[in-house]
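Late entry, evening session. Most of the bench is empty. Finally got around to the prediction I had been postponing all week. Sequence below, unchanged from the version circulated by S.P.
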Amino acid sequence: MNFHLATMKLTPINPQALGAPRGYSNGMLAPAGGRLLCIAGQVGWDSQQKIVSEIFAEQFDQALANVLAVVREAGGEAGDLARLTLYVTDHREYLREVARVGELYRERMGRHFPAMALVEVAALLEPGAKVEIEATAVLAPG
C-alpha cells in the first residue's frame, strides 16, 4: 500500500454537545495504518539539560520545542500531534501567562489544536521545572 503524509491527517472530533473548544480539540481521530509515537514528558531544558528560564512561558516554549524535536526525529511534524498533556506546578501562574503561552504555541504549532489536558501537580521530577509536556503523535507508515 502506498501512503503519503497528506493522507495521514488527523481528524478533530468536537461534538456539539460539548460546546466549541477553544485552543484544543475534544478528540483527534487517527487514520488507519498510522504509527503511534509516544513522547515522554519534556521539560523546559536545553541540550545541556539546564532549565532555560524561571519564566513559565519560556519553559513552556522550550518544553514544546523538545516535544517537536522528538516528533521531527521520528519523521513527523507538528500537525502529527494527536494529544498533549501539560503538567504544571501552579495553574494560576499558567493563567497569568496564558496569553504569552498562546502566542508561543501558535508560533510552533500554527492553528493545529490536538486533544489536550492541563493537570496541576505538586512538583515535577526536575528541580526548577514549572511545566512538563507529554504527547502522542500519529505518523505515516514506514
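Two things to note before I forget:
Residues 5-139 form a domain with the 60s Ribosomal Protein L30; Chain: A; fold (CATH 3.30.1330.40).
The chain has three helices and six strands.
Will write this up properly tomorrow.
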